[in-house]
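Q: What does the assembled structure look like for these inputs?
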Amino acid sequence: EVQLVESGGGLVKPGGSLRLSCAASGSTFGYYAMNWVRQAPGKGLEWVSSISSSGRHLYYADSVKGRFTISRDNAQKSLFLQMNSLRADDTAVYYCASNGIYGWFDPWGQGTLVTVSS
Amino acid sequence: DIVMTQSPDSLAVSLGERATISCKSSQSVLYSSNNKNCLAWYQQKPGQPPKLLIYWASTRESGVPDRFSGSGSGTDFTLTISSLQAEDVAVYYCQQYYSPMYTFGQGTKLEIK
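A:
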């Protein structure tokens, strides 16, 4: 079974950058699309970005388009999210999650907290 | 984008009673290739990541108790907990995966009355 572990969160000033990573265990990482989903404090789930298994197809929520970049390294079984021009409303726990063959999200990582504040 | 709307926002149910949560999508999420609805339900407890409960609108994930069931088609879906247990206190989310611009409902907080 695949397990996902996020890292890279922390405190950053508005306008700053941060790079999140998600390390996967197991042998199936390269077969499935991957996602980033975030959850602001006390709020609901917001899908942020997806990347196909090959890395050729990328999708972004309007709220992060042009500022965030998703990428993956299948050889290293890792997923990344480069976040630039960070704003206070980007403050959230960021989860990585794997797609099944058809698109539901399972499993999820435990999340990493990103705080954007001066 | 497909908008997912859940109701109610919060719900209080007595132990052993039925809990019902509704989810409506702004357009059909029926996948014509297999005639299945691209709708999943998740449970999230405080401090934990979401947990997949149901996919294809009505298929229970392995290990999920059979008191959880999903139903509906097209744009209207329901998650039912047939007999509420204390461990079911959580926030529940629906999600469409028909479009790669995935979207979640706003969540329904389920509590014990």
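Residues 15 and 84 of chain B are 5 Å apart (CA to CA).
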